[in-house]
Amino acid sequence: MELEAFELVILRRPPDAPEYDEATLERLQREHLAFHADLRARGIVATNGPVLDQPDESVRGLALYRTGSLEHARKLAQRDPSVAAGRLVVEVMTWWCPAGTMRLAGAAVSLDEQGARRQSRAAWNHEKPGQWRRGESNP
User: What pTM was computed for the model?
Assistant: First the structure.
C-alpha cells in the first residue's frame, strides 16, 4: 500500500491563554487567517481550518502541513500570530493516509458575515463518487 505523510498540527487553546481586548483579538484573527492563507498559497499547508462540535473544547483547529519534517512544521506553526501571542499552542505529529486520497471534497459549508455557518443539507452520493446529494443529512 502506498501512503503519503503529512504533519498534522492541532491548534489548542491553552488553559492559561492571555486575555486581550476585542480590537487585539480581531487583529490576531485576521493575521492568523492571513498566515494560513499564505502557507496554503505556497504549498506548505495542504489544508487547514477550525473544528466544531469537538468533545474537547480546547481543540480549536487542524492543519495538514507538507514539509517532510516535524521540526520544520513545528517551527512554522509556532510563527502563527495567534500561537506567538499565546492564544493557541500547537501539537505536531505525523499523519499517514492512502496516496492520492486528499483530493475528495467535503460537504459544502459557507459562513455569513458574522461567521455563522450555513451547511447545505447533503449526503454523500455513493452512486456518483465525488458528489453530494442535496436535501439529505450528512452521514
Answer: 0.80
User: Which structural domain range is residue 9 located in?
Assistant: 3-98
DSSP 52: -
Q: What is the C-alpha to C-alpha distance for residues 80 and 88, in angstroms, rounded to an integer?
A: 9
46, 10: one domain: yes
For the stretch 8-40, pLDDT in tens is 999 999 999 999 999 999 999 999 999 999 999
Question: Any idea which residue has 499552542 for its cell?
Answer: 89
CA angle 88/103/95 to nearest 5° reads: 45
Judge whether residue 120 has pLDDT over 70.
Answer: no
Phi-psi sector, 27: left (phi>0), alpha (psi -120 to 50), beta: alpha
Q: Is 103 part of a structural domain of the chain?
A: no
Residue 22 sits in the same domain as residue 68: yes
Mean pLDDT along residues 90-96: 97
